[in-house]
What does this fold into?
Amino acid sequence: MIALLARWLKAFRPPLLAFVLAVWILPAYGSEQIASHDVAALGRGINILGYDGIWEGAENAPFRLENLTAIQQAGFSHVRINFFGFKHMDSDSILDEAVLKRLDAVIEEVLARKLIPILDEHDTDFCQRYIAGCVEKLKSFWKQIASRYAGKYPELVFEILNEPGGHMTSAEWNSLLNECLGIVRVTNPERTVIVAVLNTDEAPIDELVLPAGDRKLIVTFHYYAPIRFTHQGAPWSRIFSTIGPLDWGAPEDEARVVADFTRINLWSQREKRPIYLGEFGVYERAPTGSRLRYLSSVARNADRFGWAWAYWQFDHDFAAFDSARQTWNWDVLRALIPSAH
It folds into this structure.
């Protein structure tokens, strides 16, 4: 740590240096003053099942429910279940009962491993593009889900919507978010609920409007900055597919993580709202050393602030686990959880 601070002394102008020093000197970033029991219980997690055939009943789905045992044994405390509910609705926005029964089974398997399940409504693309349609579908989704799980699975955490943003403004998101919270609270008054900051480069957390009396809320944001580094070589993007190799790990790179997280943490302390870093990761095409340095830096800084976090993701791309070989990508896992074995 002292060596790192000495490097920063040479790398930054005095005002920025004073800011960074102040952040590091604050004991545990003051996080223990506001960290809720719910965030402490969530701890370290991983995203699962976003693009898996399990929801359609596919027998050859890459994710195996026994993988939950490997997740628990690796040292994770929770899983964030990425559920595309809108895909499984009929024309009246009614969820398919067969898919819901599969969701029940997943939740029960997660709980059987002593992991905490987060049910994340993940229809980002639709909600970022079609605001009016999203409003109706999201309210219908939470009315059905809240009713289904009322009085069941008390450890289950709801997450209202993954990465609101795009064409959706902060005002529109605050309105929709509070409507959905009202729907959930009718049948689940004590349920822990995760609510997202509008997903922009600036993560405008100061614009988030929450019901003052609801203290069973956890605020979430995602972190992929700088996105040219974390998404370099991603084949689904015309822009990112041509980028790289880019390195990461210079003093100014580390300092940006600290500065970005400090801004979030200052709001958290002021508003007495706990924080959940719901996604972070680096695509596989990044240079290995830089990728691992980034993952370790983000995870350890989130730990120091007392936040819960979840890596993106278990398998598919950004993978921490090799589904074909049924083994961890150990370098990635140990960057996230150094004690993993």
In short: Residues 1-35 have pLDDT under 50 and may be disordered. Residues 2-336 form a domain with the TIM Barrel fold (CATH 3.20.20.80).
